[in-house]
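W.,

You were right to be curious about this one. When I first looked at the sequence I had no strong expectations either way, so I just let the prediction run and decided to look at it fresh. Below is the sequence, 302 residues in total, followed by the output.
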Amino acid sequence: MTTPLFDTHAHIISADTVKYPIGPLNGRPQAVPKNPFHAGLLLQGMDEAGVSHACAVQRAFVYGTDNSYVLDVAREHSERLTPVVVLRADDASTPEALRTLAARQRLGGLRLASSHYDHLDTGWFNSPAALQTWRTAADLHLPVAIIFPPSQLEYLLPAIAVVAAMFPMLPIVIDHLGINHRANLLVARERALNIPDPYLGPPDFAISEPLRRLRLLPNVYFKLTSINFERLEEDGVALSQFVRHCVAEFGAERLMWGSDIGQSEGAYTDLAAKARHATELLSEQQREQLLFGTAARLYRPG
């Protein structure tokens, strides 16, 4: 299959901690990997894998809201990379900060994440202050991607539906599809301790009713990533069946692919090949939408 790829979820980390200092969103100490996946490796992998464009997504648990690295790299390689920045939605200074960034450089979008996954609240994305950030993103026509703690999906997904209804013209992207897929290393540690984990396979592949109800909101989109794939693959579930089911549930025109490189393990070329292979049961038009078309419409590569 020669379908071009648009990677909506590439994390990059610089080895230069002086120019790009570490400052995680949660404030906890974080060491840069010994061999970080930097922008040069991403561009090389894109060339090798036939990926025409990628979103350079801020790694919040390395750099917090200091988006300097993704902005610098995307400015230098604007024909290939689009920056997706992370800011705290509930910070009163964020709307003005977002406007300033957008005035300086073309942004692909905004990403929101909770600074502490053990805080059981929704205020980080739907408090009165946070809604001002959403309003600003809508005014700037910037898609908003949001990542939810897997254990809190049951009540976070209905809450995001309310926000989506408030801003019907604003594209909202649910990262990692909004399913309780977690990184394999975490799952392996928990299984070793006999901690039960949810069943994610067929026939419904753990697509919850709150997630399914988001189909009623046409401005909500869903991102399939390597986190979704690696967990299913570990349990022997055919990725092509999973992707076909997702297309049947949400439509290929509302699905997009992201490698999650820089966090998910594996060579970039392997992650891209896996994405192509996972779409083998789709029609040519569906495959093009999921692997390229949906992302290109939302993130408008230059």
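Here's what jumped out at me. DSSP finds 13 helices and eight strands in the chain. And, maybe more interesting for your project: The chain has a mean pLDDT of 93.

Coffee later to discuss?

I.
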